[in-house]
Amino acid sequence: MIAIIAALVVALVLLFRQLSGGSDAEEPDPGPGAEAPATQAPGEPVDDVLALMPHSEDELRAGAESARSFVAAYTEVRPEETDEERLARLSPLVSEEFFGAVEALVMGAPTSAVPQGDPQALRSDAVVTGIRNIGEGSVIFEVEARFMTDTGDDGGNEPVSYAVTMVPEEGGWAVYAFQGAAVGDIAETG
After folding, report:
1. What span, in angstroms and rounded, lies between the C-alpha atoms of 127 and 10?
2. Do 176 and 98 contact (CB within 8 A), yes or no?
3. Higher pLDDT, 54 or 50
4. Taking the complete model, does pTM exceed 0.85, yes or no?
5. Using alpha carbons only, what angle is made at residue 142 by residues 81 and 47, rounded to the nearest 5 degrees?
6. Which of 67-71, 111-115, 118-122, 156-160 has the lowest mean pLDDT?
């Protein structure tokens, strides 16, 4: 009988602690009027917004340049270039995870819609037009490509926009995903 009473007392003490939310290890209440430490005074303007970013301005600039370089290289048409040569030209710009997708795009590109005859050389002027998302592990840049012939004519073609997901890799930036900007992007969780 004493064991049952002791077990009930222990159970009631534990139940009381659970319901009251208290424990002996809690930090003491700082008291009324105490506030959490802040990095800036309430109501003050943020002085350095870039300090809040997970990447420095120089890192973002380098990532944007890598995204621009990839779009320019990917959209460039060199008639004398084989698929293997094109893949070799693009591979230093892409991450290991994305290499297989680029390989499939380059090596498996259908040729039925390509006009017969001598293909015309095209280059593209690529410009980074925005940042869609910034995360700890990646940045998604929007890059616009305007196709130009050797004579500098765009042939009346409208620019094409791409979403290019860049990831830090080996001290630089590499393409992790790439698609038309209207389609969207690969979202990131962290």
Report:
1. 70
2. yes
3. 54
4. no
5. 140
6. 111-115
